[in-house]
Design brief:
Number of helices of chain A: 4
Distance between the termini of chain B: 26 Å
Oligomer: heterodimer
Largest sheet of chain B: 2 strands, antiparallel
Number of strands of chain A: 3
Largest interface: A-B, 6 and 13 residues
Strand order of the largest sheet of chain B: 1-2
Structural class of chain A: mainly alpha
Strand order of the largest sheet of chain A: 1-3-2
Order of helices and strands of chain B: EHHHHHE
Amino acid sequence: MRIDYWSRIDDRALEALLGAALALVALFGLLQPLFSVLGAGDPTTARTVVITQAAVTPGAAAGGDLTLTGTRQAELALRDPDITQRILLDTPGILASALTLLAIFLLVRIVRTLRAGEPFVPPNARRIRVIAAIVLVVGVLGPVAEAITTQLLVRGSPVAELVAFEMRINAMPFVAGLLIAALAEVFARGTRLRQDTEGLV
Amino acid sequence: MPPTEEHGIQVHLEALLADRGMTLSELANQVGVTVVNLSILKNGRARAIRFSTLTAICRALECQPGDLLSCPEDGTGRS
């Protein structure tokens, strides 16, 4: 006797969960930072950075706008950042959130095909490939964007020499991206198998 | 499976059902195949049939595969 562990209710629940994730990422990952860049909300004023030596706070005594506190890692804080600085502070997060939104949207489209009982279709193989690319890109682009924007933030300031140009690239997104790419190939093969058995009774 | 191609197999399911006074739904219940798939078979839109399905249909209709399927000699689907 065949037992189906996944039912229509599970499809709906998964779609609802993804919809909630979409809304949360859109709201807190994209809209809120965009509003804060435009000055409509509480702006981001600080970021964790890697520093080259034990920190001092050059310029703090002189009332500079940038302060640096910490040892290997430090918090780079900006007092009253202007719009350019707000853009630089929020760009890595906005980029990552935008790509995450796209990935979640594609997942929602995939789940809808589950509901229709037709998951092994060419569009799903394409969607999963795009999700794999997104995971890989976010894994690389995120740290690169953060490193570049950090350097642009401190350029010309007393703390510029203390802040290292370091890209903290994590291996996990690469592994995850490769796994998802393998899954995309599984779906592509499944699509071909399904096409082969179309019309089979 | 070979690539999509026309075939010349004729399916005589409708005639057999009429002969036995059975409906497609009744046959579907006996055979364990959906009415949709049996309809595909009946209307000549099936591309392949499982031996298990063929066996079940033959047992339900008390017939031989040759009663259900035929292949005209010229292979064009015309007798």
